[in-house]
Amino acid sequence: MSTPMDAFAEVRPAVECLDLLTAPVAEALRTWRGPEPVEQVLFVDTDPDKADTAVLVENYGSWLLEQSANCVVVAGKRGGETTLAACVVLAHTRADVNGVVRRHLGARKASFAPMDTATGESGMEFGGITPIGLPADWPLLVDAAVADTPYALIGSGARRGKLIVPGKLLAALPGAAVLEGLAA
After folding, report:
1. Per-residue confidence (pLDDT) for residue 4, from 0 to 100
2. Which residues form a coiled coil (predicted)?
3. Who is most buried in 17, 45, 126, 180, counting CB within 10 A?
4. What's the whole-number mean pLDDT along residues 99-121?
5. Rounded alpha-carbon distances, angstroms, from residue 38 to 16, 31, 35, 48, 84
């Protein structure tokens, strides 16, 4: 079975590429305290015009779809309060925002956060939002299938570049909750 590393000519530890990452992602890697070594977070330089999953797999290999994950920002609302959270799901699935996410956040209503809110609050670019470096007070919901994948190809915080990360590392990020059925 191929891994995401097989699709790219050059794969480097992300800590060697901090200047290519957005400030929150670079800072999270610089101050890493996770149970898995930070060197397991890998960086591949990709064309920013090919950041969207469909275009990426078309250009780098259709088999990457099964090994790619998306990080989406959601807003849960209850009684005038809004909670922003991030959901990490395999790219060929969709987050159950109105069911699992809403219930987990204890929200009356949940929806995808507006793009300007997602990018402004995360400090990341649309199409590149990643769970590494998100605000510490955001709940991070990781689908169990992502946690079980040997490697997931995810955003790098910017449209340029991708990170390749073991699923167990994503599941161990600060504030992460691994949920069965988060995606369908």
Report:
1. 79
2. none
3. 17
4. 96
5. 11, 9, 9, 24, 26
Which residue reads 């999953």 in tokens? 53
Q: Are 166 and 67 in contact (CB under 8 A)?
A: no
Structure tokens at 67: 């090994």
Q: Answer positive or negative: Cα dihedral of 120, 179, 175, 132.
A: negative
Nearest to 152 by CA among 140, 164, 144: 164
24-36 confidence digits (pLDDT tens): 999 999 999 888 8
CATH class as words, domain 33-179: alpha beta
Is pLDDT above 80 for 18?
Answer: yes
Q: Which two tokens stand for residue 23?
A: 């400030």
